[in-house]
Amino acid sequence: MTTPARTGVTVLGLGAMGSALAAALLDAGHPTTVWNRTPARAAGLVARGATAPSDVAGAVTAHSLVVACLLDHASVHQTLDPVVETMRGSALVNLTTTTPNEARELAEWAARHGVDYLDGAVMATPPMIGTAEASILYSGSAEVFDAARPVLDRWATSTYDGADSGLASLYDLAMLSGMYTMFAGFLHGAAMVGSVGVSATEFAARATPFLSAMTAGFAHDAAVVDGGDYTVAGQQSLDFSDLGHIVRASEEQGVDPAPVAAVQELISRQRAAGHGAEGFARLYESLRAGRAEVVR
Q1: Interval 56-98: pLDDT, tens
Q2: Sign of torsion, CA 82 88 89 94?
Q3: What pLDDT was estimated at residue 296?
Q4: pTM
């Protein structure tokens, strides 16, 4: 019985995530070429069967599928600008974290040099790569996504979000915004109870089930936002949602109220515009793109 050939892949960037991506490819039997600005980082992968050329030119010409997992947008150009002409006809899957417009710029740059471009946003930590819990979002070239799918699915659940190369990044950063805001709120709460000697570990044990249950409200708020009517029944009003007491309690305990004060500012803005009786989801109107004022 003949074993099907595995697609060869070049991985540029061997930080924690790039190394995890390359290791998953090796585990699945894909011929894998790796490159890193600091060559010593390739040693462990080479011991497992990867090839490590002495320069980036040798890496990008080894296979027609090139994956970049570098530091930032500028590092993609720094790494590939000198060798991009040798990549004509290749496919570039960029898993470097960028802004949406930076991803779009890279797509245009790649197209000028005859390189098919697919942008990706990794919604996972390095240990999650290759597991069912990992997710990677993609946008850009549908042709690259379809052709590379056997490789992409080695890493995570692969989701294609459309031809706009910036969309995967936009989804990624939007979800991270929610995550980091939640983490900051948790740390603020831990600091509040910590002021009287409660450990952060004890607070986490109490806060985790509560916060997890509260995420069930996302769907309701989303339906309100999409419907555009912040007066529908079943909402907590902005007047009732005033967070001044949390700000004061924080200050009384000697804790900086910055995370909750930012939310209170959004509430105050809508109440000052006469929307206090409307639902909490109306904060969206202070945040949405293209807003002219708080009154729609």
Answers
A1: 999 999 999 999 999 999 999 999 999 999 999 999 999 999 9
A2: positive
A3: 42
A4: 0.90
